[in-house]
Amino acid sequence: MRVYNTLSGKKEELKTLNPHKVGIYVCGPTTYNYIHLGNARPLVVFDTVRRYLEYKGYEVNYVLNFTDVDDKIINRARQEGQEAIELAAHYIDEYFQDADALNIKRAQVHPRVSQHIPEIIEAVEGLIDKGFAYETEGDVYFRVKAFKDYGKLSGRSLDEMLAGARVEIDERKEEAVDFALWKAAKEGEPFWESPWGQGRPGWHIECSVMSIKYLGETFDIHGGGSDLIFPHHENEIAQAEALSGKTFVNYWMHNGFITVNNEKMSKSLGNFFILRDILEKYSADVVRFYLIATHYRSPLDFDDGKLEEARKALGRLQNTLLLADEYTRGYIEESQEVEGKGLLFLNSVIELENKFVQAMDDDFNTAKAIGFLFEMSHNINAFLAEVDRDSVSERNAVLRAMKVFSSLGDILGIFMEKTKNEEEMAEKILEIFAGVRQLARKEKEFQLADEIREFLNDLEVTIEDTANGSRFRYSGNIELPILVEKLIELRSRFKKEKKKNYDRADFLRDTLQAGGIILEDTREGVRWKLADA
Nearest to residue 99, comparing CAs of 13, 185, 39? Predict the structure, then answer.
């Protein structure tokens, strides 16, 4: 298995410190707001890395921290009239809600800065004792010039940084590039007692201290977004290696930015999209698929069109699960060997599984791996179309193939269980569309009937008109919000038509309510919510 190491600038064979064990530390969010899509990418990327390593048989010790002491948290807490630690704790709880939605596995440890102050103080004292840090008026700074390897991760030379240091001039610092390890307390800020007076940690020291505590002075993989390479990860290396005199991390992994119109998505630029807002429109499995369908080191430009493409693509994979489940439901694998046509099919699936693994072994190339998953999906669908339903051999072949297909989907975390409630609600809304369409045809409003058919076709929902009414066939990934928004649009249109069709508009409102969806007419427009929300 090869991993791209930011430190060396090339792919390297993964050799962990302990055979069959791997330690991973990932920089988590600064908890002063809900996470946005840019925050979600590293969470999904490194969760997928973890899942694949577990699939390969590694025992993974996974640590993801929370920065709950920071200037941004303090500023937001002032605005909200809250204590900073309480605000941070609230958004940590909200993080878990979002992470669970994206099928992100919990880390073995989720350390918080506020719970590791004694260890941080001890580390800062150690750096002062070794000559790598100095105190001035209650602040403690890292002496960058004392660490000869500074800049080795980002490829920046110290001379260049000193010449063009884009930092505020502070005459108390020996050099402009020296960075804070400990900050003297200011009025209204959280603080802890220390040898240098009341204060709080600087940003960078926390990750050096917490990663060493839980993974050791040298560990295998450190991950995060590429925006953290400098200064955060550069400073982590300096602090940790100055303290221990040992290599801090063997493999540095960084995911690419999510961009909006080719500009990095970030809270500071104001061009970010809160994950929860996106999850109101697209299901979590679609968002996760979108985030891993591109290689993790490549930039990912955001727009709704790409999420829509992800929805349709994932729907094709989910359709394979549905078709296979339809065929194998009630069957268990029997002892009879797979042979003949079934064996040829099963061998094709195993060959694609090997290609999937080869792609993931090459720096976790999810984009290429997903391509092989689609090829496997196509082969399974084709075999199901002509399977001999009385053949035990062929049935066993399908059962074994689906174990492979499902396990690879689980590595990517994309085959999430839909709740029965969601599925039933989507079915009810499709029935509402059928009712509106049937009424439109009866009243010879063929344009409306065709519009509904085309809308559903775009969602890969096929309407079959029968003597007993309309029947639907679909690929398993129906987005509830998209269906509801279309019905709201139709209801609004009915109310505005020349022959104001209030009866039809009320029919939509009442049938949605019967299906568990409440419409609320407001000055800003129509809002909807689940009745049990």
Answer: 39
